[in-house]
Specification:
heterodimer; A: alpha+beta; Arc Repressor Mutant, subunit A; 2 domains; two-stranded antiparallel ribbon; 4 strands; 42% helix; B: mainly alpha; two-stranded antiparallel sheet; 8 helices; elongated
Chain lengths: 182, 259
């Protein structure tokens, strides 16, 4: 491949990624070119692009759904001032529900209630479904056929993760940690 | 994590302390319910504070107090009270099982506390995991995704409908109508304008309507169909509807023009 060609391909990738507003997968990026480009070549070009942007205000990152440009974290505090009414963080109940779905998926509402010890608030499930952070992946084969919930790629994208394995590991408590004075 | 500032007033007195034991004054229940995510969370807090000695709990009092909640909570948040009730029932069951002498044959029975301890540990692990996830940067909050503007190349418009296509379609309507020809006595006021509004109303509802669907060839006589066709032509002339067709001889669709 000619040097010139590589340079142009990198620019095409860059323009596509900068204007997409959402992660682009290798499949998406392949569609930019009429000729078939090997995925390995694309990865190499993306790596170079990542290096090219190292000293800039944006960085190229890889998340679950693909690649995206985002502002370096040190600028977030400034950028946040532009839109003061940003989405609020979720309640503790919502985050615990989300954590159960993330770490124990696929789970039913019953599983969530069992772990949290309280009834699942339907608003929380709706909130998470609307955000596209969770979805229904099937039904458990028991009476009532309850829906099984799992986290989505968008959830991983939104937390800057490539896969569930990048979530912080769950604390393992030993039996001795909880002393029940019964 | 317990919110550091819990402020509520019970009978005019400021309430700032978290519960010392399982008893929660009914007036403060709502405040505590907001601070804790449920009975497991409350129990975990009490255990961590080492304030809980369940053997010392006056069970008769506790039961009476919890029954009082039920009455109070009938008005609101009954579901939440039920979760707490279930927990206290479970604690009482565990305690009573531990107090009872075990018959020799079920000596090997598991420690009745084991299941509760397992649930508490699992809940605590999830609670910590939730806090960690919450602390992670999120798109829209701490992460700003680049979204440079570019002029989107507009989608390829479906080809315009030719006069011939329209005539063919109209003739088909007439042909089909002739199969249902019958004599009608009476006089109908036929207004092109009225039909125009009807068509527009339908387009507002359905967005895309197939040309031939606008004609009720079974029930309407030729005059009405003509008026309907005129109404479509008039709408098109006034630029109120757009007609499109994927290719020659395929169905013609009408669409309201967005302003």
């Amino acid at each position: 491949m000619e040097q010139n060609n590589i340079h142009q391909m990198k620019q095409v990738l860059e323009a596509a990624l900068l204007t997409a507003g959402e992660p682009l997968s290798l499949d998406d990026l392949q569609r930019l070119f009429l000729d078939r480009i090997e995925r390995a070549t694309l990865r190499m070009l993306l790596d170079e692009l990542k290096t090219d942007w190292q000293q800039r205000s944006l960085e190229l990152v890889q998340v679950a759904s693909g690649y995206r440009f985002q502002a370096r974290s040190e600028f977030s505090v400034y950028l946040a001032r532009l839109n003061p009414d940003r989405p609020q963080r979720y309640s503790r109940a919502a985050m615990e529900t989300l954590a159960i779905i993330a770490y124990r998926q696929p789970v039913t509402r019953g599983d969530i209630e069992e772990i949290r010890g309280v009834a699942v608030n339907p608003n929380i499930m709706r909130q998470l479904l609307e955000r596209n952070w969770i979805d229904i992946v099937g039904q458990r084969d028991v009476p009532g056929r309850p829906s099984l919930y799992a986290t989505t790629k968008i959830f991983l994208d939104d937390l800057n993760l490539r896969s569930l394995s990048e979530l912080p590991p769950m604390e393992q408590f030993a039996q001795t940690d909880v002393q029940l004075e019964l | 994590m317990i919110p550091s500032s819990i402020s509520a007033r019970i009978h005019g007195e400021a309430l700032s302390e978290l519960p010392q034991d399982l008893y929660i004054p009914p007036d403060a229940l709502e405040v505590y319910l907001e601070a804790f995510e449920g009975p497991l969370d409350l129990l975990l807090y009490l255990i961590r504070k080492n304030n809980l000695d369940i053997l010392d709990i006056p069970m008769a009092d506790l039961t009476r107090q919890y029954m009082l909640y039920v009455d109070k909570m009938r008005v609101h948040k009954l579901e939440l009270a039920a979760d707490y009730l279930l927990m206290s029932a479970m604690l009482i069951e565990i305690k009573s099982r531990m107090l009872l002498p075990k018959p020799a044959e079920i000596e090997s029975e598991d420690d009745p506390r084991a299941e509760l301890v397992r649930r508490l540990m699992e809940y605590e692990a999830i609670k910590l995991a939730a806090q960690r996830i919450d602390a992670m940067p999120q798109v829209g909050l701490e992460i700003m995704v680049a979204n440079a503007y570019y002029e989107q190349i507009s989608q390829i418009e479906p080809p315009d409908v030719s006069f011939e296509d329209l005539m063919t379609a109209w003739q088909n309507v007439l042909k089909r109508a002739s199969h249902f020809a019958h004599h009608k006595v009476g006089r109908a006021e036929l207004s092109v304008r009225e039909h125009m509004s009807q068509i527009l109303r339908r387009l507002k509802q359905d967005r895309f309507v197939e040309f031939s669907d606008l004609f009720d060839v079974i029930n309407e006589g030729i005059p009405k169909l003509v008026v309907c066709f005129l109404a479509i032509l008039e709408l098109a002339r006034e630029g109120l509807v757009k007609m499109s067709q994927q290719e020659a001889f395929s169905p013609i669709y009408l669409q309201a023009v967005e302003h």
